[in-house]
Predict the structure.
Amino acid sequence: MTEIRIRNFINGQFVEPLSAQYLDNIEPATGEPYSQVADSDEHDVDAAVAAAEEAFGEWSRVAANERAKLLLRIADLIDRDLEKLARAESIDTGKPITLSRTLDIPRAAANFRFFATAILHVQNEAHVTDNLALNYTLRQPRGIAGLISPWNLPLYLLSWKIAPALACANTIVAKPSELTPMTAFMLCELAHEAGLPPGVLNVVQGTGPRVGAAITAHPKINTISFTGGTVTGRKVAEAGAALFKKISLELGGKNPTIVFADADLNAALSGSVRASFANQGQVCLCGSRLYVERAIYDEFVHGFIDKASKLKQGDPLDESTEQGAIVSKTQLEKIRFYVDLAQREGGNIALGGAAPEPPNARCRDGFFFQPTVITGLPPSCRTNSEEIFGPVVSIMPFESEEEVVSYANDCEYGLSSSIWTQNLNRAHRIAEQIHAGTVWINCWLLRDLRVPFGGMKQSGVGREGGEEALRFFTEAKNVCIAK
Ligand code: NAD
């Protein structure tokens, strides 16, 4: 299998990295390399930028209707290849194939459809300045967009950037995570088959320090949309700021889930177990701090542990698996570190806390970790403040609204939160006070592609989604005509 070579896609063609160097691409479920990924560098980025620059002139003049048709064609091809893409993503990431098939890949197609049609409904503003002038706003493509994405939802998140950037008539130099390069590689084939002109979408594979940093620092890439960790986001912001780039940063989270005693207990249990352990806790929106009102704390913790302990861990390619593998050995070690730290900080491991028995012989060296529940931690310790990004949740009791709001906000992150209560007034009251870009009430990960999406504090800068994305990937120009 390691003869599969994931190459760059530049100017409409798959090409070797100029250095001819490749990295092993490890399958998380087995711990073994299953393909090779181009270990590109700044010279490959230069070649991609040259192709994107050359393509921009014509692409930026293609009518919106024609761009929309191309994006819709890509969406149809993703649907056609759903099974192939889901399997590839499951192998690449370690996530259960059912999750890829039902969430990640369909959402990638939905992203293309959403922005293909959104671009047909854009309105331009006009402002009449008394009897002096008429102003109108032109929204024009910005040029070459640099799109950098993480490993946890590889095609879903990359297509969330590619689709609006193309809809707005930009050209692209994109970089998926070196840990999960396969679906971006497959997307390039589909874009080519759909008839996207050469140079409009370029994908350079490789590591962050070599390829990501070269994209961020490239003077001809004036727009950067980055999703990843906060530490990397800071580097991207610093490099981009020096060149006055327009930057959107979608970063880490340490999201609170709050359950009041008046919640629908069954719904809150199912919702919070899903919020804690979906994709082995490797979703930026996962709830990793769970606050439960004292009156139902014992009953809730009991029910939560019961449900979490029944999640079926297994080979990601097994149809019945609900918990697959952790993406990499490094990530697994990070999770282990935090579980040890939680114990040193006074926490009690109420469930999990270790690697499970391998589900089968194929997976004996895979990166697995049990769904883990920690109780007894003080609200403001490191385990409750730092992003772990794994199947680890800390459950704590609270007494009052005021107290739980202060716990929820006592954190440097502010990405999302979910609140479980039947009291509508309280739900609105708390939603207003929580410092997070998304507040879910009696649900989790329910996404409408039109809403602004992003984080507060160290969870990011800027908003993606719907209108926000169309604004991000265009430059507003005012034309003022004197009367
Ligand atoms: P990461 O920051 O390590 O990597 C993200 C991307 O940046 C990768 O493609 C990587 O190669 C690249 N990169 C690394 N160093 C770089 C540099 N110096 N310059 C430019 N690019 C560089 O993140 P990760 O481990 O891949 O992903 C997990 C993180 O992503 C978590 O913190 C998670 O919360 C976050 N995330 C956020 C969102 C969101 O919408 N806010 C969504 C998904 C994941």
Notes: The radius of gyration is 23 Å. Residues 148-152, 157, 175, 177-178, 207-209, 212-213, 216, 227-229, 232, 235-236, 250-253, 284, 387, 389, 415, 455, 459-460 surround nicotinamide-adenine-dinucleotide (CB under 6 Å).
